[in-house]
Amino acid sequence: MKATDVRAKTTDELRTELEGLKKEQFNLRFQRATGQLENTGRVRQIRRDIARIQTIMREKRVSASA
């Protein structure tokens, strides 16, 4: 996921995307704990996507209030 793709989305779409990523992160943590996780790089990718979405959501809030 690229920042330009995230910036093009509305706040509601970002919330939905963030919720889905957090659910996926939760499932990946369980897979890692039980030894079933095959793609370990996905954990890092999800974590960064979550941070990217949260950052852009904050930028939109700040610009809207200014």
UniProtKB/TrEMBL annotation:
<keyword id="KW-0808">Transferase</keyword>
<keyword id="KW-0687">Ribonucleoprotein</keyword>
<protein>
    <recommendedName>
        <fullName>Large ribosomal subunit protein uL29</fullName>
    </recommendedName>
</protein>
<dbReference type="InterPro" id="IPR001854">
    <property type="entry name" value="Ribosomal_uL29"/>
</dbReference>
<dbReference type="InterPro" id="IPR036049">
    <property type="entry name" value="Ribosomal_uL29_sf"/>
</dbReference>
<dbReference type="Pfam" id="PF00831">
    <property type="entry name" value="Ribosomal_L29"/>
</dbReference>
<dbReference type="InterPro" id="IPR050063">
    <property type="entry name" value="Ribosomal_protein_uL29"/>
</dbReference>
<comment type="similarity">
    <text>Belongs to the universal ribosomal protein uL29 family.</text>
</comment>
<dbReference type="GO" id="GO:0016740">
    <property type="term" value="F:transferase activity"/>
</dbReference>
<dbReference type="InterPro" id="IPR018254">
    <property type="entry name" value="Ribosomal_uL29_CS"/>
</dbReference>
<dbReference type="GO" id="GO:0005840">
    <property type="term" value="C:ribosome"/>
</dbReference>
<keyword id="KW-0689">Ribosomal protein</keyword>
